[in-house]
Protein backbone atom coordinates (compact mmCIF):
# COMPACT_ATOMS: atom_id res chain seq x y z
CA UNK A 1 0.00 0.00 0.00
CA UNK A 2 1.39 3.36 -1.02
CA UNK A 3 1.31 5.88 1.81
CA UNK A 4 0.86 9.51 0.73
CA UNK A 5 3.17 12.09 2.25
CA UNK A 6 0.78 14.99 1.66
CA UNK A 7 -2.95 15.43 2.19
CA UNK A 8 -5.45 18.23 1.64
CA UNK A 9 -7.87 19.05 4.48
CA UNK A 10 -11.44 20.09 3.64
CA UNK A 11 -13.03 21.84 6.62
CA UNK A 12 -16.64 21.76 5.27
CA UNK A 13 -19.00 24.66 5.91
CA UNK A 14 -20.49 23.21 9.11
CA UNK A 15 -17.01 22.37 10.36
CA UNK A 16 -15.94 25.95 9.75
CA UNK A 17 -19.04 27.45 11.36
CA UNK A 18 -19.86 25.21 14.34
CA UNK A 19 -16.79 23.14 15.19
CA UNK A 20 -13.60 24.82 13.94
CA UNK A 21 -11.74 23.25 16.88
CA UNK A 22 -12.55 19.81 15.47
CA UNK A 23 -11.10 20.84 12.11
CA UNK A 24 -7.94 22.01 13.86
CA UNK A 25 -7.84 18.71 15.78
CA UNK A 26 -8.15 16.80 12.49
CA UNK A 27 -5.11 18.70 11.22
CA UNK A 28 -3.22 17.86 14.40
CA UNK A 29 -4.01 14.15 14.04
CA UNK A 30 -2.81 14.12 10.45
CA UNK A 31 0.39 16.05 11.20
CA UNK A 32 1.18 13.92 14.26
CA UNK A 33 0.86 10.86 12.02
CA UNK A 34 3.51 12.22 9.68
CA UNK A 35 1.44 13.79 6.91
CA UNK A 36 2.07 17.21 5.44
CA UNK A 37 -1.29 18.99 5.54
CA UNK A 38 -2.42 21.60 3.05
CA UNK A 39 -5.50 23.76 3.64
CA UNK A 40 -6.61 25.19 0.27
CA UNK A 41 -7.69 28.77 0.82
CA UNK A 42 -10.43 28.85 -1.80
CA UNK A 43 -12.55 26.11 -0.25
CA UNK A 44 -16.15 26.95 0.65
CA UNK A 45 -18.72 24.14 0.51
CA UNK A 46 -19.27 20.85 -1.33
CA UNK A 47 -22.78 21.82 -2.41
CA UNK A 48 -24.56 19.22 -0.31
CA UNK A 49 -27.23 21.48 1.31
CA UNK A 50 -28.52 22.68 -2.05
CA UNK A 51 -28.19 19.20 -3.56
CA UNK A 52 -30.24 17.57 -0.78
CA UNK A 53 -32.93 20.23 -1.20
CA UNK A 54 -33.21 19.40 -4.90
CA UNK A 55 -31.56 22.59 -6.16
CA UNK A 56 -28.99 20.92 -8.38
CA UNK A 57 -28.16 24.04 -10.36
CA UNK A 58 -27.20 25.90 -7.20
CA UNK A 59 -25.37 22.82 -5.90
CA UNK A 60 -23.37 22.65 -9.12
CA UNK A 61 -22.26 26.28 -8.79
CA UNK A 62 -21.09 25.70 -5.24
CA UNK A 63 -19.47 22.35 -6.03
CA UNK A 64 -17.32 24.06 -8.67
CA UNK A 65 -15.59 25.97 -5.86
CA UNK A 66 -14.42 22.65 -4.46
CA UNK A 67 -13.18 21.42 -7.83
CA UNK A 68 -11.33 24.69 -8.37
CA UNK A 69 -9.70 24.66 -4.92
CA UNK A 70 -8.50 21.09 -4.55
CA UNK A 71 -5.83 19.26 -6.48
CA UNK A 72 -5.89 15.68 -7.69
CA UNK A 73 -2.26 15.29 -6.68
CA UNK A 74 -3.01 14.41 -3.03
CA UNK A 75 -5.86 12.80 -1.08
CA UNK A 76 -8.60 15.04 0.31
CA UNK A 77 -9.41 14.24 3.96
CA UNK A 78 -12.78 15.30 5.35
CA UNK A 79 -13.86 15.31 9.04
CA UNK A 80 -17.49 14.74 7.98
CA UNK A 81 -19.20 11.60 6.74
CA UNK A 82 -21.97 13.45 4.92
CA UNK A 83 -19.60 15.74 3.01
CA UNK A 84 -17.30 12.83 2.17
CA UNK A 85 -20.36 11.08 0.74
CA UNK A 86 -21.31 14.10 -1.34
CA UNK A 87 -17.80 14.39 -2.73
CA UNK A 88 -17.36 10.71 -3.56
CA UNK A 89 -20.86 9.71 -4.67
CA UNK A 90 -22.55 12.77 -6.14
CA UNK A 91 -20.11 15.55 -7.04
CA UNK A 92 -18.48 13.71 -9.99
CA UNK A 93 -21.84 13.19 -11.72
CA UNK A 94 -23.02 16.67 -10.79
CA UNK A 95 -19.97 18.27 -12.40
CA UNK A 96 -19.29 15.63 -15.05
CA UNK A 97 -15.74 15.14 -13.78
CA UNK A 98 -13.49 12.33 -12.62
CA UNK A 99 -13.76 11.52 -8.89
CA UNK A 100 -11.32 13.10 -6.46
CA UNK A 101 -9.43 10.88 -4.01
CA UNK A 102 -11.61 11.68 -0.99
CA UNK A 103 -11.41 10.04 2.45
CA UNK A 104 -13.45 10.54 5.59
CA UNK A 105 -11.03 11.26 8.45
CA UNK A 106 -11.44 8.06 10.50
CA UNK A 107 -11.28 5.84 7.39
CA UNK A 108 -8.04 7.55 6.34
CA UNK A 109 -6.41 7.35 9.78
CA UNK A 110 -7.39 3.71 10.23
CA UNK A 111 -6.29 2.76 6.72
CA UNK A 112 -2.81 4.20 7.28
CA UNK A 113 -2.44 2.96 10.87
CA UNK A 114 -2.11 6.53 12.10
CA UNK A 115 -0.64 7.37 15.47
CA UNK A 116 -3.28 7.78 18.21
CA UNK A 117 -2.36 8.95 21.70
CA UNK A 118 -3.89 7.37 24.81
CA UNK A 119 -6.07 10.45 25.29
CA UNK A 120 -9.09 8.54 26.64
CA UNK A 121 -7.47 5.98 28.93
CA UNK A 122 -9.97 4.78 31.54
CA UNK A 123 -12.96 6.55 29.96
CA UNK A 124 -16.24 5.01 28.84
CA UNK A 125 -17.53 6.47 25.58
CA UNK A 126 -20.39 5.83 23.20
CA UNK A 127 -20.13 6.23 19.44
CA UNK A 128 -22.95 7.38 17.15
CA UNK A 129 -22.91 6.23 13.50
CA UNK A 130 -23.92 9.09 11.23
CA UNK A 131 -26.28 7.99 8.46
CA UNK A 132 -24.15 8.94 5.46
CA UNK A 133 -20.95 7.53 6.93
CA UNK A 134 -22.56 4.21 7.81
CA UNK A 135 -25.00 3.66 4.95
CA UNK A 136 -23.31 5.37 2.01
CA UNK A 137 -19.62 4.83 2.80
CA UNK A 138 -19.79 1.68 4.94
CA UNK A 139 -17.56 3.19 7.63
CA UNK A 140 -18.40 1.78 11.04
CA UNK A 141 -15.56 -0.15 12.67
CA UNK A 142 -12.81 2.34 11.80
CA UNK A 143 -13.83 5.10 14.26
CA UNK A 144 -14.48 2.51 16.95
CA UNK A 145 -11.03 1.00 16.49
CA UNK A 146 -9.44 4.44 16.77
CA UNK A 147 -11.34 5.24 19.97
CA UNK A 148 -10.32 1.92 21.50
CA UNK A 149 -6.69 2.62 20.52
CA UNK A 150 -7.01 5.93 22.39
CA UNK A 151 -7.72 3.91 25.54
CA UNK A 152 -11.52 4.22 25.64
CA UNK A 153 -13.97 1.51 26.58
CA UNK A 154 -16.95 1.72 24.23
CA UNK A 155 -20.49 1.44 25.54
CA UNK A 156 -22.73 0.15 22.73
CA UNK A 157 -25.84 2.19 21.94
CA UNK A 158 -29.14 0.32 21.88
CA UNK A 159 -29.61 1.09 18.17
CA UNK A 160 -26.39 2.61 16.85
CA UNK A 161 -27.77 2.59 13.30
CA UNK A 162 -30.69 4.89 14.06
CA UNK A 163 -30.58 8.50 12.83
CA UNK A 164 -30.04 11.27 15.38
CA UNK A 165 -32.81 13.30 13.73
CA UNK A 166 -30.69 15.89 11.95
CA UNK A 167 -30.97 14.59 8.41
CA UNK A 168 -30.21 17.94 6.77
CA UNK A 169 -33.52 19.57 5.91
CA UNK A 170 -35.44 16.86 7.82
CA UNK A 171 -34.76 18.63 11.11
CA UNK A 172 -36.37 21.78 9.69
CA UNK A 173 -39.33 20.11 8.00
CA UNK A 174 -40.14 17.69 10.85
CA UNK A 175 -38.86 19.42 14.00
CA UNK A 176 -40.98 17.47 16.52
CA UNK A 177 -39.87 14.10 15.17
CA UNK A 178 -36.28 15.34 14.87
CA UNK A 179 -36.17 16.42 18.52
CA UNK A 180 -37.63 13.11 19.72
CA UNK A 181 -35.00 11.18 17.75
CA UNK A 182 -32.19 13.26 19.23
CA UNK A 183 -33.52 12.75 22.76
CA UNK A 184 -33.68 8.97 22.22
CA UNK A 185 -30.12 8.94 20.93
CA UNK A 186 -28.81 10.87 23.94
CA UNK A 187 -30.71 8.65 26.37
CA UNK A 188 -29.32 5.50 24.76
CA UNK A 189 -25.78 6.56 25.66
CA UNK A 190 -26.61 5.79 29.29
CA UNK A 191 -23.71 6.39 31.66
CA UNK A 192 -21.11 7.03 28.97
CA UNK A 193 -18.93 10.04 29.72
CA UNK A 194 -19.34 11.35 26.18
CA UNK A 195 -21.15 10.57 22.97
CA UNK A 196 -18.75 10.76 20.02
CA UNK A 197 -19.73 11.37 16.41
CA UNK A 198 -17.76 11.88 13.20
CA UNK A 199 -20.21 14.25 11.51
CA UNK A 200 -20.65 17.99 12.27
CA UNK A 201 -24.38 17.78 11.45
CA UNK A 202 -24.94 15.14 14.11
CA UNK A 203 -22.76 17.13 16.48
CA UNK A 204 -24.94 20.22 15.94
CA UNK A 205 -28.14 18.24 16.50
CA UNK A 206 -27.10 16.27 19.56
CA UNK A 207 -25.09 18.99 21.27
CA UNK A 208 -27.97 21.43 20.81
CA UNK A 209 -30.46 19.06 22.42
CA UNK A 210 -28.09 18.26 25.25
CA UNK A 211 -27.63 21.95 26.00
CA UNK A 212 -31.36 22.62 25.75
CA UNK A 213 -32.26 19.76 28.11
CA UNK A 214 -29.38 20.36 30.51
CA UNK A 215 -28.68 16.65 30.81
CA UNK A 216 -27.07 13.78 29.00
CA UNK A 217 -23.49 13.00 27.99
CA UNK A 218 -21.18 15.54 26.43
CA UNK A 219 -21.20 15.38 22.64
CA UNK A 220 -17.73 15.45 21.06
CA UNK A 221 -16.45 15.26 17.51
CA UNK A 222 -14.29 12.22 16.82
CA UNK A 223 -11.30 14.37 15.83
CA UNK A 224 -11.36 16.15 19.19
CA UNK A 225 -11.86 12.90 21.12
CA UNK A 226 -8.79 11.41 19.45
CA UNK A 227 -6.58 14.50 19.53
CA UNK A 228 -7.32 15.79 23.03
CA UNK A 229 -9.67 13.35 24.75
CA UNK A 230 -13.20 14.09 25.93
CA UNK A 231 -12.33 15.67 29.29
Count of discrete structural domains? 2
Strand order of the largest sheet: 2-1-3-4
* Class based on secondary structure composition and strand pairing: alpha/beta
Question: What is the radius of gyration computed over CA atoms, rounded to a whole number of angstroms?
Answer: 17 Å
Count of helical stretches? 12
Estimate percent helicity: 40-55%
Distance from N terminus to C terminus (CA atoms, Å) equals 35 Å
Question: According to CATH, what is the class of the largest domain?
Answer: Alpha Beta
Bin the strand percentage.
5-15%
Largest sheet: 4 strands, parallel
What CATH architecture of the largest domain would you give? 3-Layer(aba) Sandwich
Structural notes for this entry:
α6 (105-111) crosses α8 (141-149). 48% of the residues are buried. The protein has two domains: 6-110; 117-228, Rossmann fold (3-Layer(aba) Sandwich). The longest helix has 15 residues, at 81-95. It contains twelve helices and eight strands. The strands form two sheets. The protein has a four-stranded parallel β-sheet with strand order 2-1-3-4, with helices on both faces. A four-stranded parallel β-sheet has the order 6-5-7-8, with helices on both faces. The chain is α/β, with parallel strands linked by helices.
Based on the model shown, name its key terms.
single chain; about 230 residues; alpha/beta; Rossmann fold; 2 domains; 4-stranded parallel beta sheet; 8 strands
Summarize the structure.
The chain has 231 residues and is α/β, with parallel strands linked by helices. The chain contains twelve helices and eight strands.
Amino acid sequence: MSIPSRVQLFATCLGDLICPDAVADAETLLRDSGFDVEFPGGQVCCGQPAFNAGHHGAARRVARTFAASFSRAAPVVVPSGSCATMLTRYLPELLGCEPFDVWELSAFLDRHDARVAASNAGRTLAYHDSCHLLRELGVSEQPRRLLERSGATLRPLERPDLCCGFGGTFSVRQPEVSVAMADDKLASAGDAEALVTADPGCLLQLRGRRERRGEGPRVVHLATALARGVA
